[in-house]
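Internal ticket #5521
Category: modeling
Description: The requester needs a full-assembly model to guide mutagenesis choices. All entity lines are attached below as received. Residue total reported by intake: 388.
Assigned to: D.W.
Attached entities:
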Amino acid sequence: MAIVERQRFWRPKACGDTLSPRAVRQLHDLGLDAALTGLARTEGIRLVVEGRTVEVPWPTHPELPAHGHVVRRDRLDSILAANAAAAGATVLEGHDALAPVLERGFVRGAVVQPTDGGPPVEVPARYVLVADGAASRFGRALGTFRTRDWPFATAIRSYWQSPRHAETWIEAELELTDREGTPLPGHGWVAPVGDGTVNVGISLLSPAGETRSVNPAHLLDEHVRRVAERWGLDPSRPTETPASGRVPMGGSVGPKAGPTYLVVGDAAGSANPFTGAGIEYALETGRMAADVLHEALAANDPTVLQRYSAMLDAEYGQYFKVARLTSAPMSRSWGRTARPTRGSRGSRAVPGCCARSRASAFAATPSASGRYASPPTCSGHTDSVPPR
Ligand SMILES: Cc1cc2nc3c(=O)[nH]c(=O)nc-3n(C[C@H](O)[C@H](O)[C@H](O)COP(=O)(O)OP(=O)(O)OC[C@H]3O[C@@H](n4cnc5c(N)ncnc54)[C@H](O)[C@@H]3O)c2cc1C
């Protein structure tokens, strides 16, 4: 097996760095418990809605651990690459997959080029797994496309030093506003990395796939300013330049399988439309695809690949459908909302209501076996966050 990766590990990646229990379960199954030891651990999510906080522990579930982690993606992805290499894969770092190798219409590998300027070479393969992320140039070359009126998010994050870097709760603020206080669909987060810093970011949702004339960097500035006092950080001193990216969601990219290839992770638009989380879905879809490929190789039967789309549908179809149906009125509600002055509660009525429904969605994710995880129990309401 060969893995082609354009960048070199450790490489940075725009991400909130939060691993849900479902992601931790996948890492556990890959035998990576030891690699996670000592990394920041989380008990759940502290939701901030309309000036009130609710601590929502990760749900109790028979198949999932009761904790998550926060780990920088340069580190996590290096761990995963090293694990694949230890299992026998050839990891071609610093190689760009330029185009599929096609033989009578079947994908039989990739044309790859070293990013340091060497000549392109062909890497032959019986089967190809497309895992090139949200932009997915390789997938587009095979004919994948995103359903444009399904949700996607634009997210941006950076790091700040904080005395609360070792906390065990991720904070999610469900009321995203621009500089004028206009409510927008999305959320802001603070994820304690445990290394002296916190990862602070925002995710702006486009519920019906529409593009917005809002600068995400300005929304991040506003969010950082709001959380600065309670997290003890200096908004003007991020430790690195903010990095952003798009997150296609809800299975919005397809087709997900061809005669000799499968599409996983963001390349398949797999992230959760309620939360924007995509790591667990990348790991899970990768695992399902690996199972299918293993069977196809063992049985010498490429038709097995066609089962993959049905597996995805069984696992996520219903949940993603609910997400899309919930998103549509959310989009209309935000569109109707008048521009309020900062702190004007009345004009926030509709988004506030949507924020509450998203609050429950944050914790009710489908389980690793297709059933919904049990709803969380609230550990209590506090008014520790002063109303804005
Ligand atoms: C700001 C931000 C915050 C986020 N926060 C979270 C979070 O806290 N938790 C969470 O679960 N999800 C989060 N997400 C979503 C999450 O990052 C993605 O869903 C997840 O990384 C998808 O994994 P992937 O492997 O499919 O794609 P990626 O992680 O994007 O990996 C794709 C890889 O393919 C490589 N590549 C691309 N093109 C080529 C090519 N042509 N040749 C060779 N290599 C190529 C890239 O270099 C990259 O390493 C966030 C996203 C953003 C933008």
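Resolution: model delivered.
Comment from assignee: Helices lie at 21-29, 33-36, 73-86, 137-141, 216-231, 279-299, 307-336, 349-363.
Ticket closed.
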